[in-house]
Amino acid sequence: MVKLDGITNFVAIAEAGSISAAARRLHLSKSVVSERLAGLEQSLGAPLFHRTTRKLSLTEDGIAFFERASRIVWEVQDAVAEVSERRGTLSGPMRLSAPVTFGRMHLGPALYPFLSKHPGISLTLELDDRRVDAAADGYDAVIRHGTVEDSRLVALPIAPSRRLLVASPEYLKHYGKPTTLDALGGHRAIYYTNRNVADWRFLDLRPDAFVRPPASLRVNNGDMMRDAALAGLGLALLPSFIVGEDVKKGALVRVDVGSEAAEEMIYVAHPEGRRASKKLQELVMALRGAFGTPPYWDVV
Questions:
Q1: What string of DSSP letters covers 209-266?
Q2: Mind telling me which Gene3D superfamilies this protein's record contains (predicted)?
Q3: Residue 8 to residues 2, 73, 78, 95, 100: CA-CA distances in angstroms?
Q4: Long-range contacts of 27-34 (CB under 8 A, 24+ apart)
Q5: What architecture (CATH level 2) is domain 4-85?
Q6: Which residues contact 4 (CB under 8 A, 6 or more apart)?
Q7: What is the pLDDT of residue 84?
Q8: Which CATH number fits domain 90-161+264-291: 3.40.190.10, 3.30.390.30, 3.30.365.10, 3.30.70.120?
């Protein structure tokens, strides 16, 4: 007899790509996950994975089974959430991914009151600056900053995001303050490696309309970009939610080159084809209220 926990276990392995990763996601030991997979394969009378020393890959039977099994798991989770919502409560697990710096600086303080108000929700929040695959990695939703690039996601905006070109007073004193886009090529810059150099986008300009500065540092974390700018390593194009307070205090100076950086969005996105659960909808509303319009971190 096929058990639901065996199906849930299989879907987690298929999405995570390994038994170890699935065990971490399910908060189970590797031995339990392995035993459940073996039990499911025995019940079905067919192997679901090709096993090598390096990875697992789905067999043809596994691919066919996964298509329906993943729908079953989602439908069960959705049904449980709907019953809870009918009783007027928000409960059950929710798994989110968010950028490290935004999560630390702003998301956490906005989440804590929401979770206190809804103690039935068990939230797993994973902070990661890489762009995770919301569906394949098993997230209910991801919180992102930028533009919506994945057509498989449904985006729910929670706040606009202004980006500011900044540098330390010491850097500008030593290298001069650029006043035009053409002058940027003679400076040094700090770049975010999870995006390419063309991420320096300004309103109404083509990406190749000016020469970008050579890099003094490339790094995949906003906190370190800010710290590098404060240390005088170069110009940095950073969201106001990271550098707003530094600009207000004068620790960093806005650099006006005659054109504003293209505005972006902070949004919650869930996989296409899944309805946004009531608890996810309520979370979006809570975050919008906590951040405000315009958001509290914006500088004048």
A1: SSPPPPEEEEES-HHHHHHHHHTT--EEEEEHHHHHHHHHHTSSEE---SSPBPPEEE
A2: 3.40.190.290, Winged helix-like DNA-binding domain superfamily/Winged helix DNA-binding domain
A3: 11, 6, 14, 15, 29
A4: 33/9
A5: Orthogonal Bundle (1.10)
A6: 72, 76
A7: 65
A8: 3.40.190.10
Judged by DSSP in three states, 188 sits in coil
The string of pLDDT tens digits covering residues 67-87 is 888 888 877 877 776 776 666
pLDDT in tens, 164-218: 999 999 999 999 999 998 899 999 999 998 776 567 888 766 666 778 899 999 9
Weakest mean pLDDT among 6-10, 71-75, 152-156, 281-285: 71-75
Strands, E assignment, 59-188: 92-98, 121-127, 141-146, 153-161, 163-167
pTM of the predicted model, to two decimals? Answer: 0.72
